[in-house]
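Supplementary Text 2. Reproducibility record for the structural model of the 367-residue chain.

All settings were left at their defaults, and a single model was retained for analysis rather than an ensemble. We include the record here because the model underlies the residue-level annotations in Supplementary Table 4.
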Amino acid sequence: MEKNQKSLAIIDDGVYGVSLPEGTKITHLKISGGRVIKDREPTPEPTHGALCAAIILRVCPQIPVISIKIMEQGTAGDIRRLSAALLWCLENKVTLVHMSLGTLVYELKDKIEDTVRKLSENGTLMVAAFHNRNIPTWPAAFPGVFGVRGDKRGVLENRGIAFDSGFPGNRENSLIACISESLGEGIEDIRYANSFAAPVVTARLAEMAVSGEDITFEKALTVLEREAALYPEGAFEGMYCRFPGKQTEEAEIPVLWIEWELLAPIYGEFEKDGYDVTVFSDRGEGVPLALYGQAECMAEGFPRTMAGIYPADALLFSTGERPGLPFSEIDMYVAGEAGKIRVSVEAGERVFASAGEVFLFIKEYFA
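Retained model, structure tokens:
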């Protein structure tokens, strides 16, 4: 690539199987064994990354593309491969990075956070899609990243971009975009997928990047704000961190609520026995409930949603007050009472003298 030439990296499952504008300059790379190497394994079927590329290149066909494949078509990605791809972008001074992917797991964000921060400090523009659940996703929720969700309410016109005024985070993470045009015969409707809304924003940034001016993050944000579509007040209200209602399916892992004062000793029992446990709390321990807007009152649907996301042996929720959620949401409640520990399950209650006794009961109950 020529010195000072603008470039776009698409981190995804490769860019294959879709007709791109004539003359498109594209380099195919992939992560293998922690290294970036040439990708010599094209696929005939349209890849997710290729659909993203098509949306971008229809608007800005002149920007050179670097496809960095971090996963095979139809499979989940790996945070280590994403980290390696981002590091390559940092070392090679890529102008613009597009990621219609990310992690929902709070603890995994640390593996990419430092590189994302350095990319931002070095002037690389980054766009990332939120998960279709519209809950915190990284890198989309990082400062300095243009985080995008799709217009699931049909407010915007094709390729419209707006900012969600009710979004609880950074301004750059609050973007809403719409893509409603056809990408070709046999390609399903893509309007409501966040993955395909994000390239709409990338396309606009690519146009800025190749305009001949140096585009900083601040300037890009200013342009997007100036051009942002207007929409009726409250049009996107409740779209972010909205959880389904009552869940009828049982979680695959135990979900417990534990009174704050008992969290440390019971968590310690899990740890001693080698269990991988994720804690959610409103007091700075584990995953912050405020991240999901659940600090004051846990919503029905929230615990089970988290149980479907976090790869743990059990989830422990801890708040100042016991949430009023049914046993279809919380399998077990654990609270102190007159020097004892009361454990409530759907079948009834038991009282124990120590955290060790409670833990033995937990293991027996969920065996």
